[in-house]
Structures are given as C-alpha cells and as structure tokens.
Amino acid sequence: MKTKIYAVLACLLSGCSSLDLIPVSDKSVEGFYKTETHINQAVLGAYNGLRNVWVNAQSSYMLTEARSDNAFQGTAYDDGPISRFEVTPTLPVLSTAWAAYYSNITRSNRILEALPNVTMEDTKRKQYEGEAKFTRALFYFDLVRLFGGVPKVTRSLSIDESYKTNRATAEEIYDQIVTDLTEAAALLPESYDNTNKGRATKWAAKGYLGKVYLFRSGYPLKKQEWAKARQAFSEVISSGQFEFFASYSDIYSFAKEGGKQQVFSIQFKAGASGNGNPFPTRNASNDIAPVTVEAGGLPFGGSPFNLFLTADLTDSFEKGDVRKSVAIRSQWLHKSGQVITTLPTCQKYQNGTVVAGNDWDIDWIALSYTDVLMMYAETLNEIGYESNGEAFKILNDVRKRAGLAAKTASDVPSQAAYRLWMEAERRSELCFENLRWFDLVRTDRALDVMKTYLGKFGMAANVKSRDQYLYPIPQSVRDNTPNITQNPGY
Questions:
Q1: Where is each RagB/SusD domain found (predicted)?
Q2: Which residue has the higher pLDDT, 355 or 337?
C-alpha cells in the first residue's frame, strides 16, 4: 500500500498532566507497542503529529507566520494578539501547541522504549529507531525556538515525575536535538521505494542537523558552528538525491509532488484532515462573510487559522519576480465556473479551484532542497565573505529561476550586505513555509524589522525587547507544574 502519513492512533493523544505526558501507568496504551505492526502504526502517528503541529489545528503557522511581517492573524492588521505583539500566557493557542508537542514527544519516546522488546528484522528496527529520534528532534526544535528552555523528556514519566518536571536550558535542548538527529542520520536509509514516500531519510536528518547548527550559530546561543552546518548541508548536496528545479512553479506542482526538490515533506490527501488550508481567502471588500460554504462545513473564505498575508510581503517582491505569481493568488475558479476575486492569499498549496473545506491534495514541504542550498550559502558567507564566490552563485541561481538579474560584488560589497540579500531572497523564495519569523530571530533582526512593520499601523511601541523573541510559557502549564518558571518579560 502507498504509505501516506495519515491520521492514526488518535487515542494516544490523551495525557494526564500539564505537560500532556502519558504516564507509565496509563491504561490506554496497554497491549499496544507489542508487534512490528504496532510500532509501524506508532511511527506513522508520529509523522501525523508533525502535520498536526505544523499545518493543522495546533499549527505553528499561527505562531510563526502571523508573528512576522508575512501574515497576520484575525480579520484585520490590528486584530490578533500574536500579530500585535500583545501575547499573554493565557492565550489559548499556546497551551494547545504545548500539549500537542509534548503528546507527540511522548509517542516518540514510547516507540524507543518498546523497540528492544519487539521481534523484527534489525534493518527495520534501526529504521523505526531513526524515525522516532528524527520526529522527537523536530518537535523539540520547534519548542526550543518558540519557548526557549523547556522540559527535556526522553522517557515515559510517572504522574508524580511529570508534575515535578523542571525546564532544561535552551542549550541542553539543542544538545538533545543534535544527538537525536546525528543518531537518526546513522540509522535511517538513504531512500525508500514509492510505497513509503514521506518517511524520513538519512538526508532529511542531515539537512535538519545542518539547520540546527545554523540556528545554534545565531541568536541567542551564538555558538559559531557554521563549519558544522556547512558540512551537514554539503553531504546533502553531494548525495545526488536532490535536484534544483529549473522552474519555481514545479516545486509546488501536484504533478511534481514528492520530487527531488523535497528533502522532507508532510504528506497530505484531500479529505484526510478536514481542517482546510492554513491561508484562507476573503472577499475583496474585507467582509468576514465567506464567499461560499462548501461540503464539509469549512467556508472558502476561512479556516481555523484565519491567517492572511500582508501588503508588506506582496510589496516586497521585485518587479518581474515570478515567485510572486506562484506564491500569491487573488482570483479563483469556483466549481460552478464563476471566477471569484479575493484579497491576495497564499496559493503554494492550492490548485486554483475552490474545493470542499479548502482541502487540497498537495503535500507541504517541510525542508526543501532550495532551503538547504540557501542555508549552505549562508554558512559560506559567515565563514568568510568571498566577492562573487560560491555563495553568490547559489543566490544568483535562485534569482535566475525567479526571472531576476544576477547581483555582483558591486551590489553586495560585504558580509553584512550579503546577509541582508539572503534575508530578502529567503523571504521571497520560502514565504509561507514557517521560516520568516525564525529567520528574523536567529539573525537578531526581528526587533528592528517588526518595529518598523508595526510602526506602519501605530503599534511600534508594542515591540519592546528581545524577550518577545520567545512566547510565554502557557499559564495552565505553570499552574499545574509549579517548578516550570516563566520567560522574562511575561
């Protein structure tokens, strides 16, 4: 059968503590994790967990894109505390996201604990171990960037243990992520057949390992691990498994889905989630009323996220940049044949038609080959600026594909200038891929960029300090787990 990562094992999402950690005494998992089939189902559930926290109801979309100058959450630019920089510890999405991440970490931990006691071929055991460590690493990678230091849980906890949990430091969490991804890369296969498309490979683990080193080199840790990041990216590039597509639109084409441009992607099938597209469209009049309500109950004009792109983003594309027309759309063909004009919205994961519940059958690219190439170029510049060197070639290849002229050292005369060039190209190339906010934080540019952006709406004073680079620990977590301290500024 074709292994698309669909929703399985929903029963394992229930938890007993403020951390949403399933204790060892939980009866809901008794009798499970006993066979290879059980382990495989649990691993698929871990992949589904990634989909849930990245692009479904507990989406980090809301916590990342809506926190940046790419998108806003609500019905207008000044509506939604995330976009306004007025977040408090009681904001519901924070506790929802926290619980979802730890529920999925618990699943990965249980797989790792059960594996030694389940009979199977050694190659499959290694694969499942690698997948569990890979998914756990990705959950923690999000948590540490959203909240800073968080509880480090790598085994099943008793109820008493979970309530007494403390926060680890951000550096300790990053160390665990590096360990998990390094071990995953050694355990995972280099590729799969088509029946297992969507599972993590050695190269996905290597790509994320490079990304983690990149983040550790930036704010706030500033560990200067550029050479380690470069090495990891170099291994992905030299693997021969991936391809820089000649056409930007092909990257997001259903016909090219699962192609060599994707290092790791989240599998989607229409009708499987029922949550709609993260970026709904609205009537051009800004009316909240949906254009039409389709079967399945979700309006074409809305979704559980209520995220809309900003004019700041649409205005940032250079004239003639083909990426704008691929990423952004304002006209849609209804199934009745009517052309509907809306305010601009993301169309990377849509096919241009109105469908039930905004539920398109297009996979979500979590780590693209272009992203790997651009991060590799960034490490080259950080290690040492080279006028018109390899780092220039990589970004100019990206620009050429976008229909733009190349830049030279006269345009980008220094390491600092290259950093700003990279920032702009990443925004245009990778918009709506949960990257913009994290990019601004790791380069320590978020304070300046967001103060300027919100200043357009009279809210510059809302951007106060680097404390806002992190979200507050959810109040419900602190109420139930007294040893967990709050982040500064909240």
A1: 342-490
A2: 337
